[in-house]
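Data availability (excerpt). The following record was deposited with the supplementary files.
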Amino acid sequence: QVQLVESGGGLVQAGGSLTLSCAASGSIFRVISMGWHRQAPGKQRELVADINSGHAINYADSVKGRFTISRDNAKNTVYLQMNSLKPEDTAVYYCTTRTYYSTTSWDEYWGQGTQVTVSS
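Predicted structure:
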């Protein structure tokens, strides 16, 4: 099993910044990718950003130019720097990872979520 521990959520005014962190631990053989999804009230969960072991990055169009994802492979930790936050960024943010837990088997894991609230 792989555990994900998130931190850094909170309340911020529009235009402000927050940084989310997520550390993976447990039965990690090799991390394939790490990233962030979010779910706002009444909306479907969506990908915010992810980064793979080769540091290839995907961003949702809605956060391009404002959010930056980065990863520390040695610490199995992923960060999400969120700038110029908007009220529509309000959501529960979930850390995710696709990780090999043996030489041949991998799975997808989700954190418990951290609330980000942006006030107008």
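Summary of structural features: The two ends are 40 Å apart (CA to CA).
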